[in-house]
Amino acid sequence: MMKDYSYEILDLLNKYEGNTEAALAGEKSPQCLYAFSLLRENLLEWMEVSKDARVLQIGSDYGACTGLLSGRAKTVVVLDPRDENLEVNRLRHGNRGNVFYVRGDLEQDMANGGWKRYKPEKPKQDGEVEALMAEPFDFVFLSGVWDWYGKERAGEILQTASSFVKPGGILAAAAENETGVRYWMGAQLMETAFLEVEYRGLFEELVKKQGGSFLMYYPVPDYRYPVSIYSDAYLPKPGDVTNISARLDGPGYWFGNEEEAMTRACQNGVFTKFANSFLGVWEKGNL
Question: For residue 12, what are the contacts with CB-CB under 8 A and spacing of at least 6?
Answer without folding.
Answer: 23, 27, 32, 35
